[in-house]
Model the fold of this input.
Amino acid sequence: MMNKRIYLDHGATTPIRSEVFEEMTPYLQGNFGNPSSIHSFGRDARKAVEDAREQVGQAIGAYSDEILFTSGGTEADNLAIQGVAEKLKDKGKHIITSQIEHHAVLDTCEAMEKKGYEVTYLPVDNNGLLDPNNLKEAIRKDTILITIMHANNEVGTIQPIAELAKIAKEHDIVFHSDAVQTVGSIPVNVDELAVDLLSLSAHKMYGPKGIGALYIRKGTKLDKIFHGGAQERKIRPGTENVAGIVGLGKAISLAVSELELKSKKITALRDRLIKELTSIEDTQLNGHPEKRLPGNVNVSFEYIEGESLLLNLDMKGIAASSGSACTSGSLDPSHVLMAMGLSHQTAHGSLRLTLGKDNTEEEIEYVLEAIPEVINRLREMSSLWKGKEANYS
Ligand SMILES: *Cc1c(COP(=O)(O)O)cnc(C)c1O
Done:
């Protein structure tokens, strides 16, 4: 009986680590005050929120008053894009992004198009990398916002954000980056990256779901997208998710303090997976070979249907994904793999394994036995594969 369960889907979400959980629980029980209240319950909650703001700021090299708490990465992306677009609409209505953004950015940009904005979706190369020259060429007089993700959630490719943001600055254009995949995983410093706005999310770094933050550089102006109370500098109304905020603060400071050590270990496991998986016949690596998230493995197996591969791996206790968790379930191939120029067939045979801090060498050992076995079995059943074999003989 299979009783092992191996989680290799940290790009989709991570568990709340115990140190974070312990930090949060008082704020779900005894310390339940509303941070806006004057009494001691309120003041305790306010202190917790402001301490966490300090932790988040410190983790990314920002001042604490540049951190605005949101309900997660998706809301942070929406607030950045809609907020800037609305604020600067008299200056221009052109936005630049990339074809491989997370749907939180892509769908928001598409919604802005319906509202009369124009959006340029920059292409990427075969490795998922943007060319800064393409950005330069796309800039117009009426460009008001550039939004490019730091690292891609599906293929792990890390973009040259500092270089791209510098181009934006030269043209006095606001630059936003969705850094949900990088904060806590690789060094992220808002000054080194030279971004004006940056999104992050707790549940991708061992914090709770439903809490994130938008970094807003001093002087960057944006309109609110929700209406209500005066919380979060009157930009993001609603009673604060105090326990979530405390969890985010703890998670991000732990992640950043352990980053170097963990990333070394995770990178070693990643490289072993990539090396051995790509040695399987008719298998390719998706994403950049070096400029890549420490925990991301994305490979395509020809003559394999990603969905059946996932189901078969799940039966062996291995949790992985094909494309991104948000898009699996639909039969459309991943927009990211399509933008990278993969054929439909190759995109459909993709497998994403995203490693976390607690994955072990033994687990990887097991996975490296299980995957070739499943691939062989599925290929044996595939008429395309048999046809290919026949052609060789
Ligand atoms: C997970 C993710 C998001 C969405 O964050 P939520 O907190 O789940 O809303 C946005 N962008 C990227 C790159 C992500 O990986």
User: Anything to note?
Assistant: Residues 72-74, 102, 104, 149, 153, 178, 180-181, 201, 203-204, 212 surround pyridoxal-5'-phosphate (CB under 6 Å).
